[in-house]
Specification:
three-stranded mixed beta sheet; 8% strand
Amino acid sequence: MPLIVIKKDGSKETFDRQKIMRGLVAATVKRDVPLSKLNALIDDIESYLRDNGKTEVESQEIGKLVLQRLIDIDKVAYVRFASVYRDFKDVDEFNAELRSLANEQTRD
């Protein structure tokens, strides 16, 4: 059964691994992140959605799932991906995300 993605504008399309991969590759440019880790991240998200009985999922949820997994792989890639996914409006929003990430690091 195909997994359907509901986009921000309400349109629907079939889940496309390559769209996620393009975003991840862009976020990991010049980072030492093997392609196999990115494929595993996408596999994990797809399995998670299917295991939870999802047939339709909002694109924002997919973005959140990517971020939750990407932060453990590479912090710089996380910030890069977040800057596109969260569509920061200004430097203050970007700085707030960096502070949040730094605070998480302190707690770990």
